[in-house]
Amino acid sequence: MTISIAQNIARLTERIERAEGNAGRQRGSVKLMLAAKHQPVENLLAASAEGVTLFGHNIVQQLEQSVQGLQEAAISSINTVIGPVQSNKLRAAMTWADRIDTVDSLKTAQRIARRQQARIDDGEASGPYPILIQVNSSGSTTQSGCSPDELVDLAGQISELDLVRIDGLMTIGAHTSDTAKIHRSFALTRELSLQMRGLPGLEDAAELSMGMTGDLDIAIAEGATTVRVGTAVFGERPRS
Ligand SMILES: *Cc1c(COP(=O)(O)O)cnc(C)c1O
Fold first, then answer.
1. Which long-range contacts does 56-62 make (Cβ < 8 Å, 24+ apart)?
2. Ligand 1 atom 2, closest CA
């Protein structure tokens, strides 16, 4: 199977621009993050040749391989973690990723703060480590993320950690063909973002990472600042 990553990115860019226009939003206001899971580094290099250099990774081992491959090719990229991180993988995740987008508990944030202190002591880092808080906006029991009821309290507690910086929220929309439900999960996340940004120090935590191949148009209508796309660019995923 040959797929044209360049062509797919061109089509997707048009789709994003159309959704921005329909939502009365400025063209180019939504960032494209490519979901890199199970993609060989060649595919990430093909995307970067089209100017897309923001990648989200679900699996820490693949994150490390991808970042090394991109670095060897002298591509400067931004890489985040968009899957759950087990505590024994946190150290590697922070070494290779520029941000972790799936923090959903104070405990994880505290671990990140402790690890960041160690990195600073070792001269590997300076300043706080950036995160997004993941919200379970669909109410699905199989989904990660803090419950919407807890979000504002959790953000307040995390914001007191000096070595963690909250950049915004991440969510996975309701997994359903009922578009009204999908709208509701994204709208809820946007409302939570507004509430959270009322807390001291979180005024600028405006990142809203939501929307994938199937629902990115809805997410953009509801205020997404970043969409995370795999299938529309890389085709159906190869099995690991
Ligand atoms: C795989 C994945 C995506 C992209 O999904 P597609 O439907 O392939 O576009 C987005 N976000 C997360 C968290 C993912 O795991």
1. 56/80, 56/81, 56/82, 56/101, 56/228, 57/81, 57/82, 57/83, 57/97, 58/82, 58/83, 59/83, 60/85, 60/89, 60/92, 60/93, 60/96, 62/36, 62/37, 62/38
2. 35
